[in-house]
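User: I've been going back and forth on whether these two constructs are worth ordering. Before I decide, could you fold them both?

Assistant: Sure. I'll take them in the order you sent them. The first construct and its structure tokens:
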Amino acid sequence: MIQLTRCFATVVFLFLTIIHQSSAADETTITSYNVLSFGAKRNGVTDSTQAFLDAWAAACGASADSSEIYIPKGRYLLGAIAFKGDCKSSHVTFRIDGTLVASPDYRVLGQANNWFSFEGVTGVNIVGGALDAKGSALWACKLSTETTSCPNGATTLSFTNSKDIRVEGLMSLNSQMFHIVINGCQDVLIQGVKIIAAGNSPNTDGIHVQFSKNVAIFDTSIKTGDDCVSIGPGTKDLWMERISCGPGHGISIGSLAKDLEEEGVQNVTVKNAIFKGTTNGLRIKSWARPSTGFVQGVRFLDVVMLNVQNPIVIDQNYCPHNLNCPGQVSGVKVSDVLYQNIRGTSTTAVAVKFDCSATNPCSGIRLENVNLTCRKQVVQSYCMNVNGKSVGTIQPSSCL
């Protein structure tokens, strides 16, 4: 409860900071830069990458307290583009009324790590608009049994080593790889975002967070082919509320234990989420190999599962497709995890599965008022190397 209160206090602080910044912005002059003035074309055919970079240079270098880069209605063709700090302007807002599109030739972005990236920036806001990465051709290449020379693909939107970031009302369509990545950042708010990709699109995680603290995600809908939200090492104080997931692989902490020396994950809350037809619901996963990593202080609250294959999972023998499995024992220590008011339907008999490490058993696992059913089978729980307790009504019968 102490950790939950701490995380909530962090989110409140984050919102108070944003409100203060918004109020301050109302009292100062905002200098606006229209990308059309820098030569951008809104026909979706002419490359506007340099025009966007020039608009950024002007807004970033402005002496005004706040600057705005305005993208009017239209379609803007962009190649891989990186915006870097430090800016003289304390806040730069991208106000997008149009759609930013990638080349239909996936090879143009395919060799880049990122399409639309921010590195070492402070006080960047992205409001509205859509990013269309046109990733379906690359997915087809990866899914083809005849092609082996497909590029990895690019993340659509990434923030690295940045702070005081806000993404609001944005739509991300058909990313080649991950849609949004938050890496090494602090004080991030993502709100009212829509993420859309096909259910069979490979490696198209909706939002990935790692090595970051004080991140909040609210009122976001994610339909994709991989994890709706994936949470990597070094994540601390992450709050997610009113999240819709499906299709997709659920909300996952991990996979962890990729490396021996690995930072832990702590103070993560998921509240008022709904999963529709996903392969997993609430998942913690680690490879079966030595690691200094850990998972601590996780709260899953008020969650609805609708035809989810694996609603509740801790899997410390994670090995997708059973290929190149390490065959060791996970060093990741999982502790203090609460599942409260989880209800809905599972499409498999084992609705709750805790498969923990033999040398580092899961501890402090708590089930409170869990009600999961399966239309065709009697639901079951599976427990291995786990310690905890159950409170209230529990279905399937608890094995804790």
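The second construct, handled the same way:
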Amino acid sequence: MTSKAALNPLFFTLLEPYINYSKLRSLFILSTVFILRSLERKIDLVQMSSTGEKGLIVSFGEMLIDFVPTESGVSLSESSGFLKAPGGAPANVAIAVSRLGGRAAFVGKLGDDEFGHMLAGILRQNGVNDKGINFDKGARTALAFVTLRSDGDREFMFYRNPSADMLLRPDELNLELIRSAKVFHYGSISLITEPCRSAHMKAMEVAKEAGALLSYDPNLREPLWPSSEEARLQILSIWDKAQIIKVSDVELEFLTGNNTIDDDAAMSLWHPNLKLLLVTLGERGCRYYTKKFHGTVEAFNVNTVDTTGAGDSFIGAFLSQIVDDQSVLEEEERLRKVLKFANACGAITTTKKGAIPALPSDCEAHCFLKDK
């Protein structure tokens, strides 16, 4: 009986004329490349699962101390005391993202004083990357005194002549941090004066070039601007750069000059580069506008104490949900679900005094939704 060992040489000798070694070599190379690429993807997946890192949201602008009266419905001079609360819209957004389990960084300038270092510490305590913070030895950290009306709404009196946030220069920017952002979020207060305006423009340009989604919440504070006309002009000067814009009903009226809050007024602010326009309506929820669809998401009824930071909580919650999956912006059902979550976070924030102390955790937000 012939053994296998004896058959093998004869077998290959008979087949040799029919073997195309060139094709066999190409097939071997292609198979090797396929295996290596498969292994590379598996390694990437292992690294992603082990680090658990989400996309970074970088928030640019001001951080300050809000002094909130201990009683509502009185003027500043009539208030018997104030609660010191960290604030500033861009910083609020960064902490809102982090509280909800996202990755956030803050870029801005603080005074090299007790308040400035306290604020930087609060960012770190809340898990926000502070590598974009600069300290100014010649200017103080900004302060704002907040008047709470009986309905929980507020008015501001600012102390910043100039404050450190206004003095951020383009050459002080942490460009590496900005380039690592998947979402770059900003307001309009940093557009008011130089050199901060130039720093704002540079940061926005760098983030855009690096592929970040640009998110804009004007956060209108009229008393800080030389005039209403200048505020409107400068806020709109960068309007067509953003892909996501969030405005309040008051800001919509201000920017359009139209006292009617409707779809026509909102769509007058649309621009070709925009992916989503959000209009927050307080206790009436929010409206959303995309190229393909628009609608309204109802609010949640809560016992409102202080509306400070509610809009920041809303947009922070929204960005935290879409940073790693921007396809949400193209699917209405999923978008509405995310906006419901954002509305919940905004509502929770109004139930306590101050902005940052009132921002909800991910657990608080989901428990709130479950109860509703």
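Notes on the second construct follow. The longest strand covers residues 103-111. The first helix runs from residue 4 to 15.
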